[in-house]
Amino acid sequence: ILHAVIQTFLRPRLKCIEGELCLITGAGGALGRLFAQEFAKEGAHLVLWDCNTAANEQTAKVVRELGVQVHTYTVDLSKRQNIYETADRVRAEVGEVSFLVNNAGVVAGRRLLDCPDELLERTLLVNCHALFWMTKAFLPQMKAKNHGHIVTIASALGLFSTACDYCASKFGAVGFHESLTHELLAEDMDGIKTTLVCPYIVDTGMFAGCEIRKELRSLIPPLEPLYTVQQSMKAILAEQQMICIPRLMYIAFLTRKQRLDNKKFKGNMQQKNIMHYV
Ligand SMILES: NC(=O)C1=CN([C@@H]2O[C@H](COP(=O)(O)OP(=O)(O)OC[C@H]3O[C@@H](n4cnc5c(N)ncnc54)[C@H](OP(=O)(O)O)[C@@H]3O)[C@@H](O)[C@H]2O)C=CC1
Ligand SMILES: CC1=C(/C=C/C(C)=C/C=C/C(C)=C/C=O)C(C)(C)CCC1
């Protein structure tokens, strides 16, 4: 964290990614589409994955206008075999992916005892297990050249908790990112970078079914999607290992134990029984 905070205040050189092949999951979604646009502006060619074919094609249409090559794939990230098969197709039809942006995510948005097992399971599969399968599919080519970058779009809720399925999956994502980073360092794979992105709530509709306390909402309103992606891009291009957006989330993380012990903090975010994925 200290490393990330120091990097945030220094202004590092941003790397050039022109001509790199970048795979983005959840590319039909709000942040996924913006990531695709930002990567295209940097001259990266794109492989876009989503289970929502129409939304994914719409993203492809938008980014093709920026003059980069774009390939779309319909894939269900909750299915390991589907991930491996689609990865094989990408290697055969497009080439070697050097940038992986694991962005797709879902939330069940119900309290533990009200939530069907299948929904809980899906959150873990898409937000956490898929990171393992995606990385296993694409890391070998990166290792062969000691060149690549794996980005994990987690959440501030991967650092402190409020929603059970989602937090567990995002804590898993944070743990995955950290372990992968250690593993790469231990293997001297210094040409393969990792970046963890932990945003506060973003105004994309994903958390439309959640209510945040009024005082909290006026203190920190939900983030703008474009701002979130632009801040993430800066961190990625600076090869920063982690970014919390906004920076206050670093503090929220460091004080999480205190909040768990303090009844005053109960219910800063309340879930209704609705979530648009359900
Ligand atoms: N929005 C927020 O407040 C925050 C979001 N994040 C994280 O950012 C990431 C992007 O979120 P956001 O853009 O808001 O979400 P969106 O819902 O807009 O986009 C997510 C995309 O992933 C797709 N998707 C869902 N399930 C699967 C699956 N099984 N296989 C393939 N694709 C799938 C969705 O398709 P479909 O629409 O058809 O389900 C959708 O296109 C997520 O990981 C989220 O957890 C982090 C912090 C805050
Ligand atoms: C701002 C803030 C808090 C609340 C954070 C919340 C409610 C974050 C929600 C994030 C979401 C929904 C992320 C989605 O991925 C705390 C911890 C009370 C401490 C004080 C600062």
UniProtKB/TrEMBL annotation:
InterPro entries the UniProt entry points to: NAD(P)-bd_dom_sf, SDR_fam
Topology in membrane: Multi-pass membrane protein
Keywords: Lipid metabolism, Membrane, NADP, Oxidoreductase, Signal, Transmembrane, Transmembrane helix
Catalyzed reactions: all-trans-retinol + NADP(+) = all-trans-retinal + NADPH + H(+)
Transmembrane parts of this sequence: none
Top-rank taxon, per record: Eukaryota
Gene3D superfamilies: NAD(P)-binding Rossmann-like Domain
Chief localization: membrane
CDD domains (alphabetical): 17beta-HSDXI-like_SDR_c
Subcellular location: Membrane
MF GO annotations: all-trans-retinol dehydrogenase (NADP+) activity
EC top class named in words: oxidoreductase
Keyword Lyase: no
GO cellular component, one term: lipid droplet
EC number from the UniProt entry: 1.1.1.300
PANTHER family according to UniProt: PKSB, RETINOL DEHYDROGENASE 10-LIKE
Function: Catalyzes the reduction of all-trans-retinal to all-trans-retinol in the presence of NADPH.
Family per record: Belongs to the short-chain dehydrogenases/reductases (SDR) family.
Name recorded for this polypeptide: Short-chain dehydrogenase/reductase 3
Species for this entry: Sander lucioperca
Gene: LOC116041694
